[in-house]
Amino acid sequence: LLALIFISSTTVEPSPEEKQKEKKKEKEEEEKDGYDLMFRRGDLLEVPRTLFTHFGIYLGGGRVAHFIPDIMPIVSSDQFRIKQMVTNTRLLLGVLTKCGSVRVDSVEDFAYGAEIIINPMDKMCSCAALQGEQVARRAEKLLGDVAYSLLWYNCEHFVMYCRYGTVMSFQTFQFCKTVRKLLLSRGVAKVTALLAVCLLVYLRVSNTWSVLLAVLLPFLIWMAS
């Protein structure tokens, strides 16, 4: 009886590797709990990048769904490589090939060291935000490969649809507005007309079609301005 009591009371010490794994697991759980205190499921997260702003939807448990261009699904079927953090090279090639995916990453990988802003669009968008659970479910349904377009369907279009039910991008609108101001202006129309006249004189072309083309292009720019 004493032997049985002694055997049952003794505990086997875990190995150093097991201890390290347990500590890592506990740390991850603490971080997830910490993020759940900071964010709510369905929150729209915004992080500033060098040339643009990136957006995602918080799913809970330290996970973020976001739409990002990525070349890897085209060149490889290895899920382990695809699930790794997207590098700048993968991102750039994804933009050029218009290939992207809605994926789930940790908050750290999503933020990439930048400060996270919570629900910044609530004050800018005229549409009311949907319920958090509905927003998260919409994001989860869209997980997978999706055709990417820098202007017409990017990460902002994705989160705007999930949270507000409308597909739009303030970044795209501002970019197009700036380009329009630069290209479709009266000054550009005048310069285009002058260049067209100089080109006709230099080439010594005076037929109807060339003159019409030289007049039509500056005229269209002038009217568009």
Automatic annotation (TrEMBL):
- Keyword Transmembrane present in the record's keywords: the answer is yes
Domain named LRAT: which ranges?
A: 44-171
Q: Which Pfam families match?
A: LRAT (PF04970)
UniProt keywords (A-Z) are: Membrane, Transmembrane, Transmembrane helix
Please, which domain of life does this record's source organism belong to?
Eukaryota
Which residue windows are transmembrane per the record? 208-224
Annotated segments matching region Disordered: 10-32
Composition bias type Basic and acidic residues, residue spans = 16-27
Could you tell me what this protein is called? LRAT domain-containing protein
